[in-house]
Amino acid sequence: MAKEKSKSRFVYVTYIRSTPEEVFQAITEPEVARQYWMHENVSEWKPGSPWEYRAADGSRAVRLLGEVLEHTPPRRLVITWAFPSDRGNRAKHSRVAFDLERIEDMVRLTVTHDDLEPGSEMERGIAEGWPRVLASLKSFLETGRPLATWAGKK
């Protein structure tokens, strides 16, 4: 019997001066997400429903996709996450959990991205991508202005 390779995990925690409802909406509503993420998260947001991460430009190209595993607004959202080319290969699907907790006038947002292949393109991409996206989300919700986190990036 072959030994299963261990998967890696990425966890990011940030505090946002906002409400859980506003943060949850910013993650799940396409018209809000495009303002700080330059992409849209599109789904019916019901467990078992498909989820797509689409370019917010005219192409509307699907960059990532998955399935909604858990949807408990405004506290928790869990989705699978994969490149479109890996749609049929469940072994290549990772998992993202967004956990929101109100702390006084802030929200502690914990993003846990696990079931990642160590050293994979996906792992490298999310290790750089999540900090940028979440910094832009925080700025957008607190000031109304997102960050140009990919400025100068090729």
CATH architecture: 2-Layer Sandwich
What characterizes the major β-sheet? 7 strands, antiparallel
Number of domains: 1
Main CATH class:
Alpha Beta
What's the name of the CATH homologous superfamily? Answer: START domain
Write down the secondary-structure element order. Answer: EHHEEEEEEH
Beta strand %: 35-45%
Instruction: Kindly report the spatial arrangement of strands forming the biggest sheet.
Output: 1-7-6-5-4-3-2
Helix content: 25-40%
Rg, nearest Å:
15 Å
CATH topology: Alpha-D-Glucose-1,6-Bisphosphate, Chain A, domain 4
Mean pLDDT: 93
Pick out the low-confidence regions.
none
What is the structural class? alpha+beta
Number of helices in the DSSP assignment: 3
Description:
The chain has 154 residues and is of the alpha+beta class. The chain has a single domain, classed as Alpha-D-Glucose-1,6-Bisphosphate, Chain A, domain 4 (2-Layer Sandwich), CATH 3.30.530. Helix content is 26%, strand content 38%. The chain has 3 helices and 7 strands, in the order βααββββββα. It has helices at residues 20-28, 30-37, 121-143, and strands at residues 8-16, 39-43, 50-55, 62-72, 76-81, 94-103, 106-116. Strands 1-7-6-5-4-3-2 form a 7-stranded antiparallel beta sheet. Strand 2 and strand 3 (50-55) form a beta hairpin. Helix 1 packs across helix 2 and helix 2 packs across helix 3 (121-143). It is globular. The N and C termini lie far apart (43 Å).
